[in-house]
Design a protein that fits this description.
Chain A: It comes from Rugosimonospora africana. The complex is a heterotrimer of chains A (about 180), B (about 525) and C (about 230). Chain A is mainly alpha-helical. Chain A has seven helices and three strands, in the order αβααββαααα. Chain A is about 70% helix and about 5% strand. The longest helix of chain A is centred in the C-terminal third of the chain and has 36 residues, at about 140-175. Chain A starts with a helix and ends with a helix. In chain B, helix 5 (about 100-110) packs across helix 6 (about 115-145).
Chain lengths: ~180, ~525, ~230
């Protein structure tokens, strides 16, 4: 997972210990679930094993959670490599939404599919409105803004697809009916 | 709205609007000068103060047209008639940049202007331009009468530069013309609904058929009433106010001219319909559909030209009438001498007639120049207005030659019949003023009383009292139709229509450049 | 909340095409409502009817307690000038006038003094972040700047209702977001009611509520299937 790279990115500004890392993650990473301590320490352990981070001296006061970690040169190189890598432009062709609509149309008939889609559309638009509201709040953080943009763009894509699908179904039926 | 706001909105515009304002003002300058000159001529006091023994009771000018009080109204209305092409030119200039102005008016409406406010702004637009013209015209007039004021050794002037019309007349002209043009604009805009979503012209594809004909007939009838009215006034010794004649001529002339011009719209539509049915080639078809789609385009483009042709045809008839009149006088004089057994006096008619005709010729020339300017403005504007559709036609593979031929078709197919109508109307108008038959003599006779009845000649019927009466017969001559002059006018009219169509072709080249597809 | 603008059974045809076939809609005061639907569904016509620009063939249009569909064009214009603001996709600014004058225009038409109108226009230019464009003509601005100027002009009279027809339709996403951001912010500050016409779910996301139009009728499912002629 990308948690390792997120930690490398956060460490670029300077060494942090585990608790600080978790806080930085929760603050800086937009609209993400709060990171679990266990996850942070597990990732740190893997990174240290691979030589991408190293402990930057001991804090006198505490145990292992008080050990600050810094990024190594190899760590920087790994992060750069990851950032350079182009993500495969994979559409979510296996999304649950598509599966459900397909099944509904194939087996349960059009009325059933329409009922489902009406509800689904409402849920999508509500969510989209929420993100939009978040975006227009005064003093919105930049990271939240681009995360909201990302979510809105995807929700919108779903909505456009929903609409098109229904138009296609209607067209198909009109042709068959004639 | 405050007046300042109206003024600000009225002068808002792009370079095209500046051109429009300047050209409108130029037309207004010409019209103002013509009208002020007419007013000056009519203001020459009569009888004028004696200047030298020879010119007692005559105004002190070198030109007979100005000197003799009876001729001045004729000169004045020739000047008034000259304003008609000038005003038509103004009308044509108003069309410049019309699409941009329509958009602007719609935008102003969208910003919250009521329909009335939109109308006020549109009317003020033309009023302001006209006011600029009349003020400049007044200044030119005032400066001109100073500069060319040149009395000769005997105190005679070539022009009445020593007379100034009443200030109220001047004020009426300088204020009246802009107000009139604003009112006319407002009136014309009644057909145009400026909605916030754009300007909707109430579609005028069908030409109001009887109206142009009626206007022409009205003008001709008005002119035909001149001679009987003068005879009536003469018989009953009523002095018609000086303004009656110019007013009648102006109204009659304007009505007939508008009739001819709007008639061109009907001609466009009809010819377009026929051409659409029978045209075999794309050029003819494009021209036909354009004529049908906007039949008024042709009448707008040809307006000033038709007015000038009408004026010239009228002048040609009057010239022919003057020549006949002169010959009639010579013949009558000859007969008179024959009747009284006197040697022939080799009578020569006043060369004044010739000069008057020449003057009228100059007038027609000025009118024609204004007309050519108006036509050029109209044709250039119509091509530029349609540049987007023309460019897209070219881009989609219509050869430019076809478009060129379409433009030529479109102009000429309307110009030929419209010019014929204009010539006929011009002649018909002037026939009302200058009758087709001239009569001279008939009233002079010599009477020698017999010795037994010396008072025989004083009785009502001297012949029954035994007197010998020798009568000079009435000489009547028909005024010949000046076919040659009219033909020349027609050829010139068609020629200038051709030239302006050619000008349209020049603009076509730049207007069909593919870059024009990007302009909206 | 009370309805500030309503339409009842609005029917409107262009020639033989029926654009609206009996639409009933109410807009609550202070609400931002989105009217969406595919192109040609009649949403622009609905807005023009509600804003008193078009007169419906049948049905009622009301503003507060008054029925306005029977009013004269001049009376409706005065209502628009005072209580309504209108924002279109493009082309509503007077091309020949610089931004500040364009924005001052509604005030000038009301008879406000030139200087006062200019001051008001300048404060709106500042609020929308385009004060530097006061003396620039629309043709020299970017699309987003033009729309912000148009928004300023729609708001300069402090309207109670703002009608916006695809206000971002001609803009790229970011410029559109900026215009919408300003629009929503100012509307909330002034408690202006907004009727937002759009085909774009992202734009509709700025609204509190959304109604969907299809074939000239309201579509309660929002899916574009309720319209007659679709059902078999």
């Amino acid at each position: 997972m990308s948690m390792g790279y997120v930690i490398l990115g956060l460490l670029c500004a300077g060494p942090l210990h585990g608790y600080e890392l978790k806080r930085a993650h929760d603050q800086r990473m937009p609209q993400a679930k709060p990171a679990a301590f266990g996850q942070v320490y597990a990732s740190l352990g893997r990174l240290e094993r691979d030589g991408l981070v190293e402990s930057a001296g001991h804090d006198q006061a505490g145990g292992p959670e008080r050990t600050p970690f810094g990024i190594t040169d190899r760590g920087r190189a790994a992060l750069d490599g990851w950032l350079d890598e182009v993500e495969a432009p994979s559409p979510h062709v296996t999304s649950a939404l598509l599966t459900k609509v397909t099944v509904a149309l194939l087996t349960a008939g059009e009325q059933r599919a329409r009922d489902y889609l009406t509800a689904q559309r409402r849920a999508h638009t509500d969510r989209l409105r929420e993100y939009t509201r978040l975006k227009t709040e005064p003093g919105v953080r930049f990271a939240d803004l681009i995360a909201a943009d990302y979510a809105i763009a995807h929700l919108n894509a779903d909505l456009v697809w929903l609409q098109t699908t229904l138009a296609r179904v209607a067209d198909l039926r009109r042709e068959v009916g004639q | 709205m405050r007046p300042g706001t109206v003024l600000r909105l009225a002068v808002t515009g792009t370079r095209t609007d500046v051109t429009r304002i300047l050209l409108t003002a130029f037309g207004a300058v010409l019209a103002t000068l013509a009208l002020l000159s007419a007013a000056t001529v009519l203001s020459i006091p009569n009888p004028h103060q004696t200047v030298s023994p020879e010119v007692v009771a005559y105004a002190p000018y070198t030109n007979a047209l100005l000197r003799e009080s009876g001729l001045r109204p004729g000169l004045a209305f020739a000047l008034v008639v000259l304003t008609i092409p000038a005003l038509l030119f103004v009308g044509q200039c108003a069309r410049l940049g019309a699409p941009a102005r329509d958009r602007r008016l719609a935008a102003i409406r969208l910003a919250g202007a009521t329909p009335r406010q939109g109308l006020v702004v549109a009317a003020a637009e033309s009023g302001v331009a006209m006011a600029l013209g009349t003020v400049v015209g007044l200044l030119v007039y005032l400066a001109g009468r100073r500069l060319i004021d040149a009395p000769n050794a005997r105190g005679l002037r070539p022009l009445p530069t020593d007379v100034l019309p009443d200030w109220r007349v001047i004020a009426a002209l300088v204020i009246g013309l802009p107000v009139l043009s604003a009112l006319v604009t407002a009136g014309l805009l009644h057909r145009v609904v400026v909605t916030p979503l754009g300007v909707v012209r109430r579609v005028r594809t069908e030409s109001p058929r009887p109206l142009p004909g009626l206007l022409i007939v009205f003008g001709v009838v008005l002119f035909a009433l001149i001679a009987p009215a003068e005879r009536y006034a003469g018989r009953h010794e009523i002095a018609l106010p000086f303004w009656v004649l110019p007013l009648v001529v102006f109204l009659g002339g304007l009505s007939a001219t508008i009739g001819v011009v709007t008639g061109a719209g009907w001609i466009s539509y009809t010819v377009g319909r026929l051409l659409a049915r029978y045209a075999r080639r794309p050029a003819g078809l494009i021209a036909a559909r354009r004529l049908q789609a906007d039949p008024w385009q042709g009448s707008r483009a040809l307006a000033a030209l038709l007015a000038a042709v009408l004026l010239a045809a009228g002048t040609a008839w009057i010239a022919s009438w003057y020549r006949t009149q002169a010959r009639d006088e010579v013949l009558n004089d000859h007969l008179q001498h024959l009747a009284f057994h006197e040697p022939d006096s080799a009578y020569q008619p006043d060369p004044f007639y010739e000069r008057a005709v020449h003057l009228a010729g100059y007038g027609a020339l000025v009118a024609a120049l204004i007309a050519a300017a108006g036509l050029a403005v109209a044709v250039a504007n119509s091509v530029v207005e349609r540049r987007r559709s023309l460019a897209s036609l070219t881009a989609s593979g219509v050869p430019r030659g076809v478009l060129s031929r379409a433009i030529v078709w479109q102009t000429m197919v309307v110009a030929v019949p419209a010019i014929a109508v204009a010539i006929a109307t011009g002649v018909a108008l002037s026939i009302g003023y200058a009758q087709p038959t001239v009569r001279e003599g008939g009233s002079t006779y010599s009477c020698s009383a017999p010795p037994e009845n010396p008072h025989a000649c004083e009785s009502a019927d001297p012949e029954s009292q035994g007197a010998t009466v020798v009568r000079v017969p009435t000489v009547a001559m028909r005024v010949p139709v000046p076919w040659r002059d009219l033909g020349t006018i027609g050829v010139w009219g068609l020629g200038s229509a051709m030239v302006t169509a050619g000008l349209g072709l020049v603009f076509l080249r730049s207007s069909t450049a593919p870059e024009e597809l990007r302009t909206t | 909340m009370t309805e500030i603008v309503y339409g009842r059974g609005i029917v409107k045809s262009y020639g033989k095409t029926q654009a609206l076939r009996g639409v009933t809609i109410g807009v609550a005061e202070g609400e931002i409502i989105a009217v969406t639907g595919p192109s040609g569904c009649g949403k622009s016509t609905l807005m023009l009817c509600l804003a008193g620009i078009l007169r419906p063939d049948a049905g009622e249009v009301g503003y507060r307690d008054q029925r306005i569909d029977g009013w004269s064009e001049a009376a409706r214009t005065r209502l628009r000038r005072g209580d309504f603001g209108v924002l279109f996709q493009f082309g509503q600014l007077v091309a020949e006038m610089p931004a500040a004058e364009n924005i001052a225009l509604p005030l000038l038409l009301k008879g406000v003094r030139r200087r006062e109108a200019r001051t008001a226009a300048m404060s709106w230019l500042e609020r929308l972040g385009i004060a530097h464009l006061a003396d620039v003509r629309p043709g020299e601005m970017s699309g987003g700047e033009q729309q912000r100027a148009a928004l300023a002009r729609a708001l300069v009279t402090e309207p109670r209702v703002l009608f916006a027809d695809e206000p971002t339709g001609a803009l790229d996403t970011l410029a559109g977001e900026q215009v919408l951001g300003h629009l929503v912010r100012v509307a909330r500050e002034q408690r202006t009611t907004v009727v937002l016409i759009t085909h774009d779910a992202r734009v509709a996301g700025y609204a509190d509520r959304e109604v969907v139009l299809r074939d000239g009728m309201l579509d309660p499912s929002g899916l574009g299937l309720a319209g007659a002629g679709v059902a078999g």
